[in-house]
Amino acid sequence: MLFGNFINGLNDSWDVGSLTLPYGLGYLWGAAKMKLGLGVAGIAISLVAATAQVDCPDYTTYAQSPQGNPSSGPLGLPYMRPDPACRTFNSTSVEKVILDMKSRLKDPDVARLFENTFPNTLDTTVKYYNKGENLAFIITGDITAQWLRDTGNQFAHYHTLLSVDADLANLVKAVINNEARYVSQYPYCGAFQPPPESGLGLSVNDWALGVLVNPPVNNQTVFECKYEIDSLCGFIKLSSSYYEATKDASMMNAEWLAAIDQIFRVINEQSQASFDADWNFISYYNWTGLAGSLAGAVNNGGNGEPKGYTGMVGTHHRPSDDLSTFAFLTPANAMLSVQLSNLATILDHAGVAPEVSSQAKHWSKTIEQAVWEHTVVDGIFAYETNGLGSRYVMDDANVPSLLSLPYLGFLDMNHPDYVKTKKMLMSRGNPYYAKGRSFSGIGGPHIDAWNPWPMSQVTNIFGTNDDEEILTSLYTIVNNTGGLGLIHESINIYDVSDYTRPWFAWANSYFSEMLLDLAQRKPHLIFTDNKPYTPGQ
User: Fold this and answer.
1) Contact criterion met (CB below 8 Å) for 136 and 128
2) pLDDT in tens, 66-80
């Protein structure tokens, strides 16, 4: 859409659920607020409804104090799993992995952390699942909404089990099908309300009040419409993981193909420069907060900083849900390049949509070349660029990050440009690296500069083969759970008992995924023996 046409639409309207709101630049100065719906009639067909019969505690509260018996290690970490009757999904294959790992991990505290974190997604976040409807709604933890990015990561560590656990595979397939409905309708949005079939009530997101979004959204479906290209990558990642493990092409139904089509629509729209040859401002998506809203205003009519053409795909927000400084987020484009290649691979294997596969291969290569051409200077990757000469050298803890480039599959951890960049990222050269007496790492503006995230130390392990560095990062995490045996969002370097988010399922999954990586790659570091271990094999 030409931004001039957007301005000319002042007298049109956006339908936002039950609200009809004027849009256009005039509305940027208005006082109206986009309010979220508060209820959906019906009874939930969900595991949560079943667990309510046994008086299950709220896990957000439960996770804030030690539960169960302590581990036998020096930290005495508590057992933090809910009672079996209160778990939102049970898997025998997951329980077997826990027993296998516990029997071989040399440190009882590390074993307890794995025992708590590996099943956390299934134990606590499956808010709704109906196999017959092929629908599942997965929350992030202490926020009752489904993020495309989080969900793709929350299930990543179960990948090798999908070929041997049909029930778990069916759950993942239902997650993908629900997300396909979201993406096919709202490809610019990253977080969603429960499906109407669930009967679950809708959540009010205070940070979405007073926020204007174009294209318009229905807030009875959308929880938050921040455009983050890695959210779409997360959907492809989960889809590829499922197909690679199961070879079940029935996942690629009409809704899923429609979602993939919408992803390519976003890629085509957001790879364009801000101005065309005649100096028309091009705007396909804009997002801004009204004066006084929690989200705050965004410059240039909600469009952010202008960008040139590079071959990369612009994004409005980062994986942390914070606004981008410049549109071309290097790690998100690296992830997109890899995931588009994975998409082409599964489409080709299934013999489905050859024209879509061709698009995926074309864009994967184009983006990869653009990343190398436009983001690396003197062997250092920039976190963000704008295609007009500006670059922002930093990193954020949230994946995709520059530190996570090997984890994403974009490059080898020994690539000299990555090695040089990584050294800078884990130092004062990165404005969001911070180090205290007992905790250090990379954070980001989502919290503040002195609250690094344990997630960054997990990522650091994925990016090195150095045994000493791996153990240093591992025990920086293990020794800093606030005595609760779970992985938190961020930790204050001045007071490590001060943390954010007691229940953060993605971080728990990511930690256990890292331990399973070490179980294959570096078994001698964590096991009593040197035999590699892969779940499901």
Assistant:
1) yes
2) 999 999 999 999 999
